[in-house]
Every structure is written in structure tokens, then in C-alpha cells.
Automatic annotation (TrEMBL):
Keywords: ATP-binding, Nucleotide-binding, Transport. This is ABC-2 type transport system ATP-binding protein. Residues 7-212 form the ABC transporter domain. GO terms for molecular function: ATP binding; ATP hydrolysis activity. Gene3D superfamilies: P-loop containing nucleotide triphosphate hydrolases. It comes from Clostridium beijerinckii. Belongs to the ABC transporter superfamily.
Amino acid sequence: MDNKNIIEIKNLSKEVNGITILNNINVNFSRGKIYGIIGRNGSGKSMLFKSICGLVNPTQGEISVFGENINGGNFPKDTGIIIEHPGFLPQYSAFKNLKILASINNKINAENIKHAISLVGLDPANTIPVKKYSLGMKQRLGIAQALMEEPKLLILDEPMNGLDADGVTLIRKILLDLKEKSVTILLASHNSDDINELCDFVYKMDNGILTH
């Protein structure tokens, strides 16, 4: 792996029920940059992200993240993700939800979790169950979950969904701060302002084909 390339993708294709979702994608993503992926719903953006995260098996091709080959079931190290709607246990508080998730890798402590919750504008001491959260609050919590272990790679599928103007401003600032710390960010967004303000490079996905 080139020292600057966090992700290397070669000849990646994915077919589902005879339909091509990803079509021979070849691309590298380097350290400390924000990459925008634009395209209509169903163009293949989420499938690309799921493939990079090892959540689906490609039909053909290779994906390398931090120099390690990624296959279905093999989640890349040092990676935070939001793909589709963040899923939480509705009966528990924000803190308890993130504490349960943090126990999987056991890399961070309670203070790290509280910091992540505060960073996105939520109150870590709030004990109300997540089922009573608004869509925007759940989205903020999803972003806190993606950030809490201080990943070197962030994969964010429509992270601004449901956020009010203040929330969007806050999350944009967080992402730019992370870029300054050499975090690599892949961002799918329908909001052209997100793409224009945040991204160093923009790729378009159409019918499973990725173009720069």
C-alpha cells in the first residue's frame, strides 16, 4: 500500500440478483482528505461504503484499507461509520447505548464517550431513552458513535439527515477539524453546500460506475 493511500480499490464489482450495483470501480483514497460521493438514490453509493466496511462481499475485485484486505465480515480497523439510519437500543440513554457499543472494541472509557456525546451538542448526563429523541438528536448520536473511538477513517452516508441549521454547522466544523488531524473522510451527501464546503475531491456515482 502506498503510504498516503488509506483505501485502495481494484476492479470492484457487486451484483445482486443479476443486477450490477457496482461496476468495475478502481479508486484510491489518501490520508487527511475529504472525498465527496454524489449521485441519485440507488446509484450505488451505500453499496460502495458497505463494501469498504466489509459489510458485504464483492462479486469481484479487491479492497484494501490501511494495508489489509477487506472481505465480507472483516471490518476495517480505526474506522467510524454512518450508513443509512443509525440503530440504537430505544429503551436506553445515549450514554448507555454508546457504552454498549464501546465494549465491543474496549478501546475507550466513559470519559471518551461523554466527550463524543458533548462534541455533537448532546448532554451525556441526559437519561431519557433514545426512543424519545427527535430524528436530529438520533443523527447527532449516530455521529458521536462514529467519532467516539477517534477513527483515522470516517465513512459517512448522508450524515446531515434530520439536522437543523445549527447542527449542520456544528458537524461541518467537526469534520474540518478532523481533516486537520489527518483523518480521511468519505462523505455521501445530497446537499451541494456540504460537498462544496467540505470536500477536497468529488466523485460521481451513476449506475454503479464511479467517475472523478
